[in-house]
Amino acid sequence: MTKFRLEGKVAIITGAASGIGEETVKLFAENGAFVIAVDIQDELGHKVADSIGSDKVTYHHCDVRDEKQVEETIHFTLEKHGCIDILFSNAGIIGSLSGILDLDLNEFEKTMATNVVGAAATIKHAARAMIAKKIRGSIICTTSVAASIGGTGPNGYTTSKHALLGLVKSACGELGGYGIRVNSISPFGVATPLSCIAYNLEPHEVESSSSSHANLKGIVLKAKHVAEAALFLASDEAVYISGHNLVVDGGFSVVRNTPSAMPDV
């Protein structure tokens, strides 16, 4: 008999319309969760929800940079399902690819607003809802190998992911007292629509470039692998794991650090 690892749980997933978010929506729903799929790409978001073809997934528009929209999304979820068990704060952008000498500070601020401030807003309001309902919830954020290694991504992106990892650790310390777990996932280069558009590359080109620099050979990192990591952290199998940065990079950040040779993916 199949075990549904998130049976009856209510999850909010941001950045849910494509890439890692889309794969996670599908996997969470397959494992019994009710999912509020959040994004600003309305057409794609509705397609994700419709493709699952059940009452398990509801698309909801929300720009995480706007705290009022985040708060409204929490209220929407509570009205529909009565509680929030899981938050997967996955929304993010790569931002400007310019070097530090040509850094556009307006673009830098946009990256920080989405990747850090947006995550902070979702954690803040989701945690408030969990505490009010006495839910021992799970909060997960998508960081990156760029959260711990310089030179693997653009300046703004790398800075934002370092900051996000700090936010995860800080929130873990505060929310543990309420029984809420806070963790992050740091993937290596994945061929998502976001990365392909940012670098003007085809998916196979991103995968080829990442694989050529990867430590673990014989497998290509896919968005579904990151979704599976999120499923683990969201489930009761990770009931005593908090403050952890689950690195999904095939050992790259442990045994190799050659940023000068890394592609910007």
From TrEMBL:
Signal sequence extent: none
Pfam families for the chain: adh_short_C2
Family, similarity comment: Belongs to the short-chain dehydrogenases/reductases (SDR) family.
Record protein name field: Short-chain dehydrogenase/reductase
Gene: 11430026
